Amino acid sequence: MRRHENFNANWVFSEGFSGETVNTMQDGETVRLPHSAVELPYNYFDESRYQKAFTYQKIIRWESDFEGRFVALVFDAAMADAVVYLNGKEIVAHKDGYTPFEARLTPHLKKGDNLLTVKIDGSENPQIPPFGGQIDYLTYAGIYRDVWLRVTSPLFIKHMKIETPDALGDSKTVHLKTTIANPHSRTISGTLSVTITAPDGKTVATGSTTLDGWKNNIDITGLTGMELWDIDHPALYELTAEIETTEGKDRLSSRFGFRTAEFTADGFLLNNKPLKLRGLNRHQSWPYAGYAMGRRAQAKDADIVKYDLGCNVVRTSHYPQSTWFIDRCDEIGLLVFEEIPGWQHIGGEEWKKESVENVRRMIMRDWNHPSIIIWGVRINESRDAPNFYAKTNRVARELDTTRQTGGARYLTNSEMLEDVYTMNDFILGNEELPGTNRPRTALRDQMEVTGLPKKVPYMVTEYSGHMYPTKRFDQEQRQAEHVTRHLMVLNAVAGDPSISGSTGWCMFDYNTHKDFGSGDRICYHGVLDMFREPKFAAYAYSSQVDPKEGVVLQPVTYWARGERNIGGVLPLIILTNCDYVELKYGEFEPKRVYPDRDTYPHLDHPPVVIDLRSVTLEEFGAWGRMWSDGLITGYVDGEVAKTVMMPSDPVPTRLEIAPDETELRAGEKDSVRVVLRVLDQCGNILPFFEEPVALTLEGDGRIIGPRLVSFKGGATGFWVEAGESEGMLALKVACGAFAEQTVIFSVGP
Ligand code: GAL
Predict the structure, then answer these.
(1) Is 393 within 8 Å of 417 (Cβ atoms)?
(2) Is the pLDDT of residue 399 over 90?
(3) Which of 337, 410, 466 maximizes ligand 1 atoms within 8 Å of its Cβ, making it the mutation to test the pocket?
(4) Per residue in 453-489, is it b (16+ CB within 10 Å) or e — as a string?
(5) What is the pLDDT of residues 73-129, one digit of tens each?
(6) What pTM was computed for the model?
(7) What is the Å distance from ligand 1's center to 465 Cα?
(8) 519-547 pLDDT, tens per residue?
């Protein structure tokens, strides 16, 4: 049977590469994958540091099990321009940095030790996407995803595509298409059998057929009582296909779901029910480690989008992302817009060919994920290129008839070769340009954008971002405007039935090139910072969920007399899903204020806005008067649902250490995020606390990033990574007058 084993351990990593490298093991550092060739500082760095060649080597010892079998390595991705050599001989080259590739070691493996060498080149090779122009993100070099050893019979299942053509019918069908790999051109004869298991692990159907060449399909029909995959109930089934041939057996499994997804001119339908898509764009990057983060960190990002931000969709801007991330989206019911690598620039013919291949690789890697609802087959924000995009669309449609195509653009009147016109609509903020006589408008009508005579399937794939960069610790007024802009777009999208939904720019701040961002190599475009710690704008999203799923009551203020221009905290936006709130200031009677439906008529949960419509300056105190405590109480169904107390004299009271979890797995660079916050006497973050904090980690593991960091806007974060051995890790945190604290992580198998 098939062996599919992790091959991440014991690589020897060294800088540079020469023709000689492939013949001898170089001196280097022993590393485990996923690995970043260069770990960068948090900001202010030179991104050319990783833009060069690096070498990864490893000894593969012959095993008796390899005899008569087919041995290959599967690289989930390497950035970029990877070339794999075995015993000095080139086996395979793969240019793209985001899609998987396979190095077929059979028949080159010899008895005894074999030297495997992988050259990668982090320089921005203009021959391949996304390179050739400027890009607003970093493409951190390294073998930054997993590598797997695969040992199979000489005939093995290469691909399987699972389709559910009548997903909404009472009696359902599973249509399986398989491709058998036959590298030695053997005769293919035997059987293909299929088992389908339900989310509870019980077998719900089986079937079999005789193999007939390298392409084999089978229908399993009459399936009743199957559950749909939905965002609230993401029922995942598993299909296992097994072939039995004269060469042996092979088995491959994949999860799938029964669901339909369709963008229409009247909005998006999931399982034929309207669903307004509300989400954000995500890069797959982290401070210090760049792209090289494994399963837990990838899955955590999906959880943050779904559970912390209350979104139902994420766009994998601007490339296919880790399957750990997409797997998690399948598991929790988070919809995905996935797209090919690229940013504005379109290169020459070879470059375009590679891009078309990227469409193919992306779709063939991910076609069984129920969470993916659309393929982005344009280079993000590129110009129209009819021949090129006719091809990317054709390839997508040939490979997958079950999903529509889109492709994010910023052009109006752009040629619509895709099924969905997906627009980065950055109009909001444009009115600030001198000479623009535009009123302040959140979004353009879709027909103004498309120039088409009728409504078409339409989605807004970006807004905000560079139009209003905002740091988590920026002045309160700026944050209020940041919040307002996100709310305005959410409201406009909610109010236009012809817009399927939107993904804002973006989920979290990210490191970028010098040509973008704030000069420190960070684009402060997130609703979260790089540690995924929320800015106020994050609550514009999370407050849209039903209070039954979590009550949100987040005033957009640091509660100080003199933080804003002129002073005071009015107008005060309170992001909430409560029915109404009461504000008590000092000795005055509490004021009850309802959500601002006049300004945000389409939001499920408009914010409460307290301004001179509901309070007087007299009551609220003016410059020169004493500043008092504020108490905000949110009510749901007439009951107190949440309170927020804002002291007039905040002082550092508690150093909060918040690890996402304290149980880790050994031997897989399992890393967990830890956020530190300095809180006042009422539990609010102290927004301008900037003291240094010293971190130490005892045990087999490491802190990703420096050991001495400073708080930024009252919070900071890092990741603790487990090492090879099981046991305990003790994290010690020391900061100024706070007593030193210890967090224990247990590291298990
Ligand atoms: C868009 C682009 C994104 C990001 C964003 C910043 O034009 O697609 O990658 O650069 O602008 O707002």
Answers:
(1) yes
(2) yes
(3) 466
(4) eebbbbbbbbbbbebbbbbbbbebeebbbbbbbbbbb
(5) 999 999 999 999 999 999 999 999 999 999 999 999 999 999 999 999 999 999 999
(6) 0.98
(7) 7
(8) 999 999 999 999 999 999 999 999 999 99
Nearest CA residue ID for atom 4, ligand 1 = 136
pLDDT for 613: 85
Q: 10 Å Cβ neighbour count for 598?
A: 9
Give nearest CA residue, ligand 1 atom 9. 136
Percentage of the chain lying above the pLDDT 70 cut: 100
Ligand 1 centre distance from Cα of residue 506 (Å)? 9
381 lines ligand 1 (CB under 6 A): yes
By annotation, the residues acting in catalysis are 381, 462
Distances (CA, A) of 122 to 209, 221, 345, 543: 47, 49, 19, 41
Both tokens of residue 328?
């998690």
* β-pairing verdict for 553-555 and 190-197: unpaired
Q: What atom in ligand 1 is closest to the CA of residue 136? A: 10
Is the beta carbon of 462 within 6 A of some atom in ligand 1?
A: yes
Instruction: Give the list of residues 6+ apart from residue 72 with CB closer than 8 angstroms, or none.
Output: 102, 103, 104, 105, 106, 149, 150, 151, 152
Q: Convert 356-390 to b/e letters by CB count within 10 Å (16 or more is b).
A: bbbbbbbbbbbbbbbbbbbbbbbbbbbeebeebbe
Contact between residue 365 and residue 100 where contact means Cβ atoms under 8 Å apart = yes
Q: Check if 509 has its Cβ closer than 6 Å to any atom of ligand 1.
A: no
For residue 561, the SS3 value is coil
Using CA atoms, how far apart are residues 388 and 141, in angstroms rounded to an integer? Answer: 28
Q: Measured between alpha carbons, how far is 463 from 438 in angstroms, rounded to an integer?
A: 17
CA distance 55 to 121: 9
Find out whether the beta carbon of 424 lies less than 6 Å from any atom of ligand 1: yes
Q: What spacing in Å lies between the alpha carbon of 463 and ligand 1's midpoint?
A: 9
Q: How far apart are CA 417 and CA 696, in angstroms?
A: 55
CA geometry: angle 161, 166, 169, nearest 5 deg = 145
